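Instructor's aside before we start: the two examples that follow are unrelated to each other. I chose them only because their records fit on one page, so don't look for a connection. First example below.
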Amino acid sequence: MKVEQIYTGCLAQGAYYIESNGEAAIIDPLREITPYLEKAVQRGVKIKYVLETHFHADFVSGHVDLALASGAQIVFGPNAQPAYPAYITRDGEELKLGNITLKVLHTPGHTLESTTYLLKDESGKDHAIFSGDTLFIGDVGRPDLAAKSDLTQDQLAGLLFDSLRSKIMPLANDVLVFPAHGAGSACGKNMRKETFDTLGNQKQTNYALRSDLTREAFIKEVTDGLLAPPAYFPLNVKMNREGYANITEVLKQGLQPLTPDAFEAAANETGALVLDTRKPEEFTKDFIPNSINIGIDGNFAPWVGTLIPDLKLPILIVAEPGREEEVVTRLARVGYDYTIGYLQGGMEAWKKAAKETDQVHSIAAKELETAFQADKHLKIIDVRKASEYGSEHLETALNAPLEYFNDHLAAIPKNETVYLHCAGGYRSMIAASILKARGFKKLVNVLGGFQAIAETSIPKTAFVCPSTQV
């Protein structure tokens, strides 16, 4: 028996490869399926099952393409109603894989079809659970993503409480827990950085598994403080339920190299969004006017999904030369299939062609300190989360969290110099590029963000519930 976790940090997502006696199963695969196919060929095994724990909201699964390419059977738990051929299991059903068994534990709550797969080894001993978004390390799945069903989020949270206590907590303490996500995912609130654990340790440390927790208290704790999910979540659920374009075709379309003239013409003719994925410190110096900066080396896909609501919007890519395929692939992971090409040669080619460029003025935190000493009424916008802002912020700064930034544009003055900062500089450059594209000209980005500003003498304060929020 072989069990391998295939963890993708940028999505905080765990897929799983399970093998026994010449047969393999893949659980919750990413959209790019080549690594799974290559692994099966290298191991000389046949992929028998592609197991889905639920209809994922935060990424497009590779189950449809992988089943077509390998001949494997797509498997869902009870209540799933996909628009393509798949095997819908019964609660308690056992699936044979070589010499081992995968038992279906229907665990609704995160979604109605959410299912945990219990792996029994060659001797029949319970070995591990693949819990999807039902149980995380340190947390459980949020119950609001399926609240458009006939059930409210409180009713779904109640189902989750029942699922955990009737299906998962009775299992032995030495059973391993392999979840679909880790810290950084928007599918839960308090996930830990570890990507697996024993169930016994989770019973001791996970707030949601406390033995004295009542159903009512569980519902309150699980639903308290939930932020609105990114806008692309329901669109990804739809793609995972109904099917999607083949990843090979998406890559072929997106990896069209365009000269500066062709790139400019495509932008003008299609109305495509120009997405610049370079580092913020490179973007600030020179960029194509009206382009949006979301750096590939940051929390790229979730920010794209949060700030670009239309999955069918044509996208043109500006990237560091050699990273174009990575960008198109990571966009496709979250359902952005309409990339129509990239700038061949990157910004250097654009500048050599004498095309128009724009800049964002950036200053060090010490320069902000000097400016503040001269004018205590500087317009400073803090784009961190409300919780970050509440823990400590500049006394005069207004909070416009980046995840809701499009809702706050009207409150930011166009005719005054506006200073932008986040925690380290990644999010503030995204905000600056959004403002630039909407005609704001008097913008100053603070390099190093609040981490650098904290070392200055500019007055700071803290409170739990920020009230100066635009």
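Example two begins here.
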Amino acid sequence: MSQSTTREYTEKMRGRYARMTGKTARSRLLDEYVVVTGFERKYAIKVLGGSRRVSGTNRRRGAPKRYDGEVVGRLRELWLVMEQPCGKRMKDMLPLWLGHCADKPGLKKRLLSMGAATIDRCLAASKVAGPKKRLPPRSDAAIKALVEIRAGSWEVGEAGWTEVDTVAHCGGDMGGSFIWSLTSVEILSGWTEVRAIWNRGQHATLEGMKAIEAAQPFDLKGVDSDNGGEFLNHHLHGWLKGRGIKQTRSRPYRKNDQAHVEQKNHTHVRQLLGHDRLGHEELVDPLNELLSLWCLWKNLYSVTMEQVSKRREGSKEIRRHAKKSRTPAERLVSCGKIALERKIWLAAQRRMNNPFEMKAGIERMLAAIWELKERLDGEEDGCFPLRVPGFLRYAPSPLAPARGSTLNQAATVSA
């Protein structure tokens, strides 16, 4: 049978099939239709019932697309500026960011109406799979007898308990001198600070911890580290003990004891600086200016998913997260355990800063740092002269916090 004959025959049979109410009569008519057309029986039922077309058309079936290319393109632009969060985090970040955009109200409304799964589906083509696993640096222990081991889960109800770790910017070669990143993450809120230090020495690590403490909007109550010599030494131990700050350490070769800071080592360090070797001490100060602004931007405008429960059923571990993700600043304010001047400072930072301007400043500073690194590498190889003063005249974003300023001074100015 030709297609035109099949269509005509089908229209006739549809009318007869619709008029029949008995199961036996319909079954006999269906047998006849299957024999004549050669269709599979279940498919023939759908054709006669009117739910399946006999011949296809070029028209797209189903509901029309709700989000066109303009919405998806703008969503991708925001996703890149937001440092490529997942759909659940990005849905909670959009209300914070769109208030600083000049987009049309209709476009903002459509962006805000998108669900987390829709965001992931629209961005699927733009996502690139990255490395799944990274080996952390290891070092020998120093004064283990003076620092107790903390191996249990964190159960804290106030801000100030932190995990710290270091990241090597060695480019795969641990020989020689190079820059390390010192990372500190607060457990209750997820507030994260990163500072660059030279060679991970005991004195340099202590100075980095002092800079981090000055930038945090809460009082430091505890520091948990791995068994590296940069943390287990008399310099840092004496400084923490003199300030009444408790120091603990993880079990050797158990990196999951420091899961919080290990995750931040990826999102706050590697995603920004990568795995290249940073082997010039002249990069330390520019990197600290960049990292100060980067961490402030992350803490104010980048939401984090908060785990509220965890249980094990057989071999499966079931985790539940809060329905709405919040920024570390929002989580810190809502905990109610920080001083009033710190809350004023956080509110002033949210009011004065713009995430788009901060991100643009970060990109400019990062580009200048890579340019300086290339010049330093070229000078080392004897390719071209070094012009370090030109970089020192580089003006970072005015939104970057001034180095050396304490939190109380910033709170006083904001108030």
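Residues 137-142, 385-415 have pLDDT under 50 and may be disordered.
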